[in-house]
Design goal:
- The protein is mainly α.
- The chain has one domain.
- About 60% of the residues lie in helices and about 5% in strands.
- The chain has a two-stranded antiparallel ribbon. Strands 3-4 form a two-stranded antiparallel ribbon.
- α2 runs parallel beside α9, α7 packs antiparallel against α9 and α7 packs parallel to α14.
Length: about 425
């Protein structure tokens, strides 16, 4: 809103200072400050409101140290995170940018699904919340929207790399004229509508999903939509499973979003994209503003969510955060980096799947279910082993930072 207002003022009246809103770096700085202030200032009021309404977490006794003390802690704190994302984006974001529109839709869509789940748990007193199949339907629906938009929108294009011969003419020491021809990789000047994505650790690291379908357009669209559905569902559920300890999902997500913001900036900047020999995605640099708003919201939420938590984000926050990360990665065509970047989410999900699968297998084979872990997700396994909650959370944060650094290194290691 402010972007468009100051753009008009700059063009029509040459208003002093209005040109700053043209810079992504300035608007990203404003977004992160606004989101931090919104969470810190309004967070306390939201917590007090939730306490008065007795909107607290109903804790089951799972034999974990310090668990029962968390009973009654206000939940649905994800509302604060969503507010701290949406308000700065509506103020300083470019609302005519298709990538921003996709992420705003994703934020509201999964926020509503998570909010409905929390509402059923808290107000209807159903511990299971929204039935799993309805969550999946919502995630599948978002995947269809994102995949179809990425396929159909004429604004979503890339600039591919092309190899051009460069002829060099020089004279040797004996006065003879010699010439050499070298191959130089540069960005194409033409925008391309494609389903290309980035493969890490590979020299020519662009892969087109259309290759798998033999170039059939309908089959390529269906395949890309299926990929979008899988990515959105997997990452949002992984974030949801990670949200089990004070500050865990919040702190783990910060370096993930920060790296996605850096990748968006590099992919959306033609000079850096050319220098790093990566895919140039026009207009994707605007996603840096969204990443800044989300980082500010997450860091601000840690003010109240760090141990001992004064509020839980609930599914309202965790499903939204995971979904935003998934859609963000799809927009900048880095979804194949997510298993590395979101390694914590991946391990948390696998720990649950392996635990459940092994229990069912051993129960069928031996008549008695056995467990691989003391408890799943895996962060509860470490709790059962006697590690303090804060130590587990801090170590998971460190691992997330390490994975984020490795993900950035993939820009040069091919």
């Amino acid at each position: 809103m402010l972007y468009h207002l100051f753009q008009y003022l700059d063009r029509a009246y040459d208003f002093p200072g209005s040109g700053m809103f043209q810079y992504i770096s300035f608007r990203a700085s404003v977004a992160v400050i606004l989101s931090l202030l919104i969470v810190i200032i309004f967070g306390r009021r939201v917590i007090d409101f939730l306490r008065r309404k007795q909107i607290g977490e109903d804790i089951r006794d799972l034999g974990l140290e310090g668990q029962l003390q968390k009973k009654g802690t206000p939940t649905m704190g994800g509302v604060i995170i969503l507010m701290a994302i949406l308000v700065p984006m509506l103020l300083v974001g470019r609302l005519d940018n298709v990538y921003i529109q996709l992420l705003l839709v994703s934020t509201v869509w999964l926020g509503l699904i998570g909010g409905l789940d929390d509402y059923i748990k808290v107000f209807r007193h159903h511990k299971e919340g929204l039935k799993g199949r309805f969550k999946i339907i919502g995630q599948v629906g978002l995947g269809i929207i994102v995949g179809t938009t990425m396929w159909l929108s004429p604004e979503i294009v890339v600039r591919d790399k092309v190899t051009q011969p460069v002829q060099t003419v020089y004279m040797d020491g004996q006065g003879e004229v010699l010439e050499t021809v070298q191959r130089n990789v540069v960005l194409s000047s033409e925008s391309l509508k494609t389903t290309q994505t980035t493969i890490p650790f590979v020299k020519d690291n662009e892969f087109d999903y259309g290759w798998l379908t033999g170039g059939n357009e309908t089959a390529t669209w269906l395949l890309y939509v299926l990929v979008a559905i899988f990515v959105v569902t997997a990452v949002s559920n992984g974030a949801n499973l990670t949200d089990g300890l004070d500050g865990l999902a919040t702190g783990v997500s910060v370096p993930i979003v920060a790296v996605l913001g850096i990748l968006a900036y590099l992919s959306g900047h033609i000079v850096y994209a050319d220098y790093l020999n990566i895919m140039y995605i026009p207009d994707s640099g605007e996603l840096v503003v969204f990443a800044a708003a989300l980082v500010g919201a997450l860091v601000g939420f840690l003010w109240y969510n760090s141990f001992p938590a004064q509020i839980f984000m609930g599914d309202t926050g965790s499903l939204s955060i995971g979904g935003i990360i998934a859609v963000f990665a799809l927009c900048i065509r880095k979804e194949l980096l997510l298993p590395l970047l979101c390694g914590i989410f991946l391990v948390e999900s696998f720990s649950v799947m392996l635990q459940v699968g092994w229990f069912k297998y051993t129960k069928h084979k031996y008549g008695e279910g056995r467990r691989l872990l003391l408890m799943s997700p895996i962060h509860h396994h470490y709790q059962k082993k006697g590690l303090f909650e804060t130590k587990i959370v801090t170590r998971f944060w460190i691992i997330s930072l390490l994975l984020a650094a490795i993900t950035l290194v993939t820009l040069k290691i091919r």
